[in-house]
Amino acid sequence: QVQLAESGGGLVQAGGSLRLSCAASGSIYSINAMGWYRQAPGKQRELVAMLASSGNTNYADSVKGRFSISRDNAKNTVYLQMNSLKPEDTAVYYCNSGVVHHSGRYSYYWGQGTQVTVSS
What we know:
Helix content is 0%, strand content 59%. The protein is mainly β.
């Protein structure tokens, strides 16, 4: 089993910054991609940013140029630096990770979510 522990959410004014962290722990042989999704009230969960083990990144158009994803492979941790935040960035942010177990099995895991609220 794998646990994803998220931190860094909170309340910030528009134009401000926040940094989210997500640390994976448990039965991990290797991690493929790690990234972030978000879900606003009444909306579907959407991809925010993803970082593959190759270093390739994928960002939602709405956050390009404002958000930056990075990863510490030694710590199995992914970060999301969010700058120039807007009220429409308000959502619960979920960490997601693709994990290869020692058995060879590949599984996806989700964190519990961290609330980000941007006031206007």
